[in-house]
Design brief:
Elements (H helix, E strand, L loop, with lengths): L2 H11 L1 H6 L2 E6 L2 E7 L13 H17 L3 E12 L8 E11 L3 E9 L5 E15 L4
Length: 137
């Protein structure tokens, strides 16, 4: 499987993540890393990064780790713990690692840190493998 093609596919085909600036930077089966620089457009009314940004990064990281197997999947369940805020100028990194790869159900643990390696949050994401190949060609 060509990981570079899958990485490019994930970045090119995820219009939502393109719009908000989330980029997959590393990928292998069961593992993914995504990054995002926090901008003023990402802030909530109290001037910290909106919780939806963290959740979107975590979901994209876990979904990318799942997609690295070359098959389509959908999120079945997700849980995220917010631990520390992020502000304009911070760079966030979400890393997803597989904790279970079943026949159709796969589970990923995600950690998001800032540029100083401070933990901003963690999550657990459960995916259902649709058993359909990615259309990367």
């Amino acid at each position: 499987m060509d990981m570079q093609k899958i990485l490019e596919y994930r970045n090119a085909r995820n219009r939502f993540c393109q719009r908000i600036g989330i980029t997959v930077t590393e990928l292998s089966p069961g593992y993914a890393k995504v990054v995002k620089a926090v901008t003023e457009d990402d802030l909530n009314p109290v001037d910290v990064a909106h919780g939806g940004l963290f959740f979107s990064m975590a979901d994209n990281a876990a979904g990318s780790a799942m997609a690295a197997y070359g098959e389509q999947a959908v999120t079945l369940n997700a849980q995220y713990n917010f631990m520390r805020p992020a502000r304009t100028g911070d760079t966030l990194t979400a890393v997803a690692q597989e904790s279970k790869h079943g026949g159709t159900i796969c589970v990923y643990e995600v950690r998001i840190t800032d540029q100083n390696d401070n933990l901003t949050g963690t999550g657990t994401f459960t995916f259902y493998d649709l058993k359909q190949p990615l259309d990367i060609d």
